[in-house]
Amino acid sequence: MPSATSIIVGASLAVAALVFGAQIYECIRHMRLGRPAGPFGNWPARLRCVVLLVLGQALLFRFPGTGTAHFFIFWGFVLLLPTIVQAIGEGLAPGFVLPFFATFGPLALLQDLIAAAVTVAVLYGLYYRLIVRPRRYEGSHHAEGVLVLCFILTIMLTLLGTNGLRQNLGTAHVAAGWQPLSAGAGRLLAGLSPGAQHIVERVLWWTHLGVVLVFLMLLPGGKHFHVVTSAFNVLLRRLEPRGRLAPSPTGAEGVQNIEQFTWRQMLDWYSCSECGRCQDVCPAYAAGTELSPKVLIMSLRRHLRERGRALLSRADGRRHEQRQAVLARRLVGDVISEPAVWACTTCHACDTECPLCVEHVQPIVDLRRGLLASGRTETRLSTALESLRRYGNSLGKSDRQRARWTTALDFRIKDIRREPAEVLWFVGDYASYSPTAAEATLAAARVLRAAQVDYGLLYDAERNAGNDVRRAGEEGLFELLRQKNTAAMSKCSFSRIVTTDPHTYNTLKNEYEWDGRAVVVEHFAEVIDRAIAAGSLRVRRLDRVVTYHDPCYLGRYNGVYEAPRRVLRAIGCTVVEMPRSGDRALCCGAGGGRIWMEETGTGERPAVARMREAASLAPKVSCFVVACPKDLTMYRDAVKTAQLEDAIAVKDLAELVAEAAGDGTEAPRA
Amino acid sequence: MSGEICVVAEVVRGELTEQTFVSLAAGRKLAGALGCRLAAVMLGADVAPLAAALGAADRVLAVEHPLLADFNPEAALLAAESAVRAAGARACIFCHTASGMDLACGVAHRLGAPVVACCRDFTAADGQARYVAVTCGGKIIVEGTLPGPVCVVTVMPGVLRAEQGRSDRTPPVERISPPAGMESVRTKFRGWIDPPAGDVDISRQNILVSVGRGIQKKENIALAERLAAALGGVVTGSRPIIDQGWLPPTRLVGKSGKQVRPRLYLAVGISGAPEHMEGVPAAELMIGINTDARAPIFDAAHYGATCDAVQLMPALAAALGK
Amino acid sequence: MNIVVPIKFVPDPVEDLQIDPSSGLLDRSFLRLIPSELDEHALEQALILKERHGGTVTVVACDTGDVDETLFTALARGADRAVKITGDDFQQGIGSRRMAAIIHAAISGEPCDLVLTGTQALDDMDGFVGALLAERMGVPYIGYVTKVEIAGNKAAVRKEYPGGLNAEIETALPAVLGIQAAEKPPRYVVTAKVMEAMKSRRIDEKPGEDPGEPFTFPDLRMALPEPARRAEMLDGSPAQVAQKIVALLRERGLVG
């Protein structure tokens, strides 16, 4: 005859399992509405990721305080899992003892210590949430966060308490020496009579089990679902190079309804823990636009649930109207605002920061594809796209004038369409046409020559490489540009490509197909780094104190951080790092086609904030060095807005190298 | 055939437009080159009050009809045709404006005459009349002998001084009966819509910093504002700037906007296309800033520079000590 | 409601224009032709009216060069039909007068309630296509239109005057309207849709009934304006130019 306890525990467990299971089932049903994903290969690499990011919690430590806390909470969860199994087992069958896991002393010690660590971590978490109140939690489900922390705290304290009391009552499964902290907790209550202690122990035990089961039921519905999904999310992460976007799940239409995303993307949204790390590093959010990568993912998750239910339900009568109302809600327009979709600079800071490998940039690009396909463009973007389609550049200038900048040189650059060269210099729109970037382009031409690089240009045959066209959502135009460039390049003889533009660099390297031809794509900094090291470019020391801004598409996307710094050191500059450097560098705001669009932010522009960051460095820097023509444009503008023109000069790497190489390669003082 | 030169006067809101006098000035030149008389064609409900101002012409040919009180393109076309036929014109001059352009081609077609559009001057050579016109946004100058025996021309706004089309004389007025068919015209004039009130009247400002496409981004308007403040003036713009909503329509300088005669007109990033230059018939000092040395703005400006507008504006504000 | 939108192709103002010394006229050999900007507005306005009132939009162009891409783009934007009028010497350029005659011949016999075209084009030298076409069709013409409302067989339009003044005029259809600006800027259509149109849609080709150039313009010569003919150019960096400007302003008492 099962005892009352067994029945209650059994029934509660069944209910909890059903509720939990039903929610999982619903999530799976919703994911099955999504487009196919995969194939997923390279399992060794995937498993390595899981070890590093899930077991090692590596990315979390980028925020050291909460990262450490979460490390312990995670491992606490893993190591204390047997105690939950034990508790349930005991509940169903009194006297149940989990073999090994409940009796192995060293494990019990580890569990004891970690339970304490988790308690401290949770208290720190509560302090962080309630007292520190960091900005990255803005928009997250705050109450849920606090509640779950309280749940975990309760589970820890009831565990320690129960163990401690069992030590006192002699019903523990291991010796007291193996549970020093629990035993300590027990000693606090040793003053009570055995009967009272037994009651307290029962209360704590039921509380423990009850909170666990309640947590279980709430788990799939909120941000703690990541507990279940995160390992899968990391395991199934995209292993393609960051700089290569995935094609649209629907082809030409882009994503206009949520079920047009892939199920893999949907899994991402279930894994989002609303930690806000992405939001913290997002330049669009900092600029006060409507975009928060975190809120985007949360909105997608919520809408998937809502629309998934509507799509799968068979509603009649009054419910039918409600169902229609839900189905009528537009993904971009009602759920996510259009300005939010356009505000993204595709800088990849969010994707880089996310500890769960959630992708934010890809869904935004998919949504942009959908907007453009349905005729919804951003105000100024259409002008740039028309210009790109007609002239192959976004500045409305004739393609025949693309190489006009070369007339200011006193030497002729090879026309690679007519004669072979070792290196093709793919110049790019801004470097070719923008008056602000002109001096830097000329400097680069002179420096490459001084470094004895055998290079040529495509002259008028060059078109915008398409990086930002693709990221603005015009996939068809990207393909057209790529095709034209590829056709032009296929007739030429070269083995390497160099560019001063990281956007060009990224797409040529990651998204162009070379048909078996061995082509190496490099940034100007990499070429000059090598030339200086090999002695083919002689430079003198400039003896300046500078700071270097990592371009998003060179640094974060393609991992080139050291080459430009080596070049700066080689020309005698002391490089002082800004607080946000390397893969934490703050985007200038021009990427993803943003330079073609209207500014919508209500706050300070990221480029201006960046200037202030540079100007407040110690030791004081005289020069803000960039390695991207768009950065040059944005920061030369920002330094004026910030009124720091007298304090700090914005220079392209090429200009400094030209100065250091001297002998007529120096750009004339304009 | 009297071989007259006819200038079709333009009336907007009950007033003769400035362009009418520019066209009369052009007409006088053309009449001189051809050795013809000059007639002004006036269409309206009651032309007497206005006809007196057309003394630069030798006579006024008036067509009066209630439907001509405000510009009704269909009715005006019928009336203009009948007047020009009655005159036996050698050449017929229309203003290259909203009303003139509605009529020029219709009259030309009915007379079986060619159209020479966008004229800016007439001269005489070997007893022939020659015209100078512009095309391709002012980037190309066209010259030729005025075709015969009859021809229709349109004259660009502001290309000659309106003073040369005014006179103290009172011309004789000859009334021509309105043509048949006026009553069955299918077009109706419904009313005027006034421009929005408020904001500054740029035509009364002495110093204007005018921006065009060359400033590239909306954000750079702020640079123009700073400069304008430093100079004690206001910011105006060309059509593309207003179309994009970077400045309100009250700040539009040009054909569809206001005509200004400031002491200083700083044209920043403006190419100087005719539609815009119509808005600046005179400026004491005009300085053009455009990276294209061939931009038409430099034909009208007193001084110019080919540096980047976005760099010049703050440099100038700084040089002014602000 | 059937709307016809004639599109004129004009020299691209972004390019440097050259004069052919042998003919004294525009050098057309390397000229790139683009659809007239105001004709694109006319097409946009036509598409807006179609969305509101139903009917068809037909785009018509003379084959003066590479017109196919523009016609396919028009189809991708929502036009129902594209007609390309072919002729032996069209590639040398067609004046407005001749173009109006050719287009009139091509569209007469087709149902047409409304013709929308740009009020003028960049290279109009001998007239404006819309006004000339209206004459041939024997229908009313109103130019400088920025707003069109259709009610039954009447069109109520807004005609733009200088200084922000506007007039409201009503006329009966069929009519020709010269568009100065569409209600909204011409819509962007993604390249994928244009490519799809190129694959799946057809351009109707029609041989042109061409009366030839009706008039001769004796002694026609073209020239480029001399660079900076009247302005005295100031050299130097923006900072240096700024100093020179300040000096000019001080000279004239425009600044203290």
List keywords for this structure.
A: 670 residues, mainly alpha, five-stranded parallel sheet, 27 helices, B: 322 residues, alpha/beta, nine-stranded mixed sheet, 17 strands, globular
Question: Could you write a compact summary of the structure shown?
Answer:
The complex is a heterotrimer of chains A (670), B (322) and C (256). With 670 residues, chain A is mostly helical. Chain A has helices at residues 4-31, 43-55, 64-92, 105-132, 142-169, 180-188, 194-218, 226-235, 263-271, 277-281, 283-286, 293-312, 318-328, 338-342, 349-353, 361-373, 381-391, 429-433, 435-450, 467-471, 475-490, 502-510, 524-534, 562-570, 606-615, 629-641, 653-661; strands spanning 414-415, 423-425, 455-457, 496-499, 520-523, 544-548, 573-575, 623-626, 649-652.
What does this structure look like?
The complex is a heterotrimer of chains A (670), B (322) and C (256). By secondary structure, chain A is mostly helical. Chain A is 53% helix and 5% strand. Chain A has helices at 4-31, 43-55, 64-92, 105-132, 142-169, 180-188, 194-218, 226-235, 263-271, 277-281, 283-286, 293-312, 318-328, 338-342, 349-353, 361-373, 381-391, 429-433, 435-450, 467-471, 475-490, 502-510, 524-534, 562-570, 606-615, 629-641, 653-661; strands at residues 414-415, 423-425, 455-457, 496-499, 520-523, 544-548, 573-575, 623-626, 649-652. In chain A, the strands form 2 sheets. Chain A has a 5-stranded parallel sheet. With 322 residues, chain B is of the alpha/beta class. In chain B, strands 9-8-7-10-6-1-4-5-11 form a 9-stranded mixed sheet. A 5-stranded parallel sheet of chain B has the order 14-13-15-16-17. In chain B, a hairpin with a 2-residue loop joins strand 2 and strand 3 (15-16). The longest helix of chain B is centred in the first third of the chain and has 17 residues, at 18-34. Chain B is globular. The mean pLDDT of chain B is 90. By secondary structure, chain C is an alpha/beta fold. Chain C has a 9-stranded mixed sheet, sandwiched between helices. A two-stranded antiparallel sheet of chain C has the order 2-5. A two-stranded antiparallel sheet of chain C has the order 3-4. The model of chain C has no long low-confidence stretch (mean pLDDT 93). Chain C is built from 6 helices and 15 strands. Classes of the chains: A mainly alpha (670), B alpha/beta (322), C alpha/beta (256). Chains in contact: A-B, A-C, B-C. Chains B and C meet through helix 3, helix 4, strand 7, strand 8 and strand 9 of B and helix 4, strand 9, strand 10, strand 11 and strand 14 of C.
